[in-house]
Amino acid sequence: MSVRLVDMDGDHRADLTVAAPGDDKIRSSAWLLPGTDQGLSTGGVTRLYGDSFERTGKLDLYMGGGGIAR
Asked: Does 11 score more than 70 pLDDT?
């Protein structure tokens, strides 16, 4: 699993990204929780699946090697 706080949308607030690697039975996933001036928000949570991305390896590097792009 990979957890990262980073400003994903350029609003100068840390957004939480959590990535979990998949295997032969479970798809890799990432969840993005937007940061607000009050902290993290569950409104606007985005879930992404690993097979939504090209297999370039760049997403793995960005996520700290979490295996999301498998």
From this structure: yes
pLDDT in tens, 33-60: 999 999 999 998 988 877 665 555 555 5
pLDDT at 2: 83
Backbone angles phi and psi of 50, in degrees to 5: -60, -35
Q: Tell me the β-bridge partners of 4.
A: 17
Q: Which residues 6+ apart lie within 8 Å of 59 measured at CB? A: 53, 68, 69
Q: How far is CA 43 from CA 2, 9, 58, in A?
A: 21, 15, 28
Strand, helix or coil at 35?
Answer: strand
Query: What letter does residue 38 receive in the DSSP assignment?
Result: T
